[in-house]
Amino acid sequence: MARQKTPYVYGNTVRKADPRPYYNNEEEIRRRQQERRQHKRRKQPKPRVDKLSVFFTCIAFAAVMAAGIFYLHLQFQSTYLNKSVIRLESEIVELEKTNKAAQTELETYMDLDAIYKKATKELGMKKAAKDQIYTYESRKSTQIRQHGSIPAE
Questions:
Q1: Which residues contact 126 (CB under 8 A, 6 or more apart)?
Q2: Dist. CA 82–CA 80, nearest whole Å
Q3: How many Å apart are CA 70 and CA 74, to the nearest integer?
Q4: Which of 1-10, 69-78, 131-140 has the lowest mean pLDDT?
């Protein structure tokens, strides 16, 4: 088997040291400076921005802005409608109070005995008999609608 050279050094001394190539320091310094100058002179290409990616970024930005503006418009509309509902509800409460006050005032001024006397004596009206009175319960409202003719007797 052939003996192979290994770069390993056994022990604390070097058996054979490879001679270091001789470099002229001044020549080496000049050569390195020249390489540096040439490297600086070379124009490095500027990083280019892809036009397609800029276009898609602008489109995405516009879509996000449109969605934001649409959302703000809906929020404003919702707030406006809530405020108008509250205003209308308070208006209804005020009208109900006014109607109740007017109804109680009307009831206090009404004299039922005087109305009965005027209807029976001056106008000749008679009190209704039991078979002429029809009673019912209204489920929807206090208003009465006539859907048929009233029987004569």
A1: 120
A2: 5
A3: 6
A4: 1-10
Q: Per-residue pLDDT tens for 82-114?
A: 999 999 999 999 999 999 999 888 878 878 888
**What does the chain come to in residues?**
153
Each residue's pLDDT tens digit, 8-54: 666 666 666 666 555 567 777 888 888 888 776 666 677 778 899 99
Alpha-carbon span 120 to 114, nearest angstrom: 10
Residues 6+ apart with CB under 8 A from 120: 126, 127
| Residue carrying structure tokens 């005995």 | 113
Left (φ > 0), alpha (ψ -120 to 50) or beta: where does 73 sit? alpha
Q: What is the DSSP string of 1-57?
A: -PPPP-S---SSS-SSPPPPPP--HHHHHHHHHHHHHHHHHSPPPPPPPPHHHHHHH
The angle formed by the CA atoms of residues 7, 12 and 13, to the nearest 5 degrees, is: 70
